[in-house]
Amino acid sequence: MASANIAPSAPLAPSSSSIDDLLECPICLDTFRDPKVMDCQHTFCADCLVNYQRTNAHLFSSSNRIECPQCRHPSNLINNNVDSLPTNFIVRDIIERRFGASYTPPVRPPGYSEQIRDRLQQIRKDDDGINFKHLKPAGAALVGVLAGLVAVKVAKSIRSSISDKNHK
Prior knowledge:
This is RING-type domain-containing protein. The chain is mainly alpha-helical. The chain has helices spanning 16-22, 46-55, 89-99, 112-128, 132-167, and strands at 35-37, 43-45, 65-67, 74-76.
């Protein structure tokens, strides 16, 4: 009985663009600068987190806490300072290997912080989810249906009590 000689398939090498995507901050969409890892293991640029913290300070119940912009998991800060979050050395080392040890991301243009704050506000609006303006008609219809069901139930109950009185 001859055995088939099947060579194992070689794993597919990831494309450089998919690796580059992993080295991109989800807030500024640029290569990480001073990557900070949160308790949930999501990573962001330190400056992006500072902007996020300033933009959303009113949402945090504690001044020494920050919520992850992606999953909302809280991370503790020391002295309300984003720099107290651990640096993501793995991401930093991959960036250095990919782009060279002397890699410095391009200088950000004037007004970049404001653009990031605007983007964070848009993310927050999108994540806040439901626009209640569109739900008012549906809510009114639901209340109408529920009121109708309650009215029918009350009417049946009244008829039943009247019927019971008539039979006695």
